[in-house]
Write a structure and sequence with these properties.
Blueprint: H1 4-12, H2 21-33, E1 37-49, E2 57-67, H3 69-75, H4 78-99, E3 109-115
Helix pairs in contact: 2-4
Length: 128
């Protein structure tokens, strides 16, 4: 059975990143706060029920962040990634709530890191 409320919520939040003012604000300030961040690409929302058979919903925000390839290698260590993400959430939750979505709290904010790769070099010299 389709949950119409979830589907409507997804369509409402399907703005393109270029037009979303919240992403522009996050992009500007996160780059200043964390020099290894190259770009804040997008924010994905996932809505789920807090308790089964409850009418209350929990909104989870996942912020897709591109970092420099050198720093992305360090983030491959789960301990480093977890520590950095916890620090970033703690330091940026108020900015996120004020500029993007006031319904998201520090338990529901997650940063997902991707490498910023302009040119793929791993295939150089291979016959692929």
């Amino acid at each position: 059975m389709l949950d119409v409320e979830n589907i409507i919520y997804i369509f409402i939040h399907m703005d393109t990143p270029e037009l979303t003012p919240g992403i522009k604000v996050l992009n500007k300030y996160l780059k200043k706060m964390y020099p290894f961040i190259v770009n804040v690409d997008s924010i994905n929302y996932m809505k789920s029920r807090r308790v089964m058979n409850s009418s209350q919903f929990n909104t989870r925000a996942m912020v897709n962040v591109y970092v420099s390839p050198r720093h992305f290698c360090e983030l491959m260590d789960e301990r480093v990634s977890r520590k950095l993400e916890n620090h970033m959430v703690k330091e940026t939750i108020q900015l996120f709530q004020a500029s993007v979505n006031p319904d998201v709290n520090s338990n529901n904010l997650q940063y997902i890191f991707f490498p910023d790769v302009e040119e793929v070099t791993i295939f150089d010299g291979l016959d692929i």
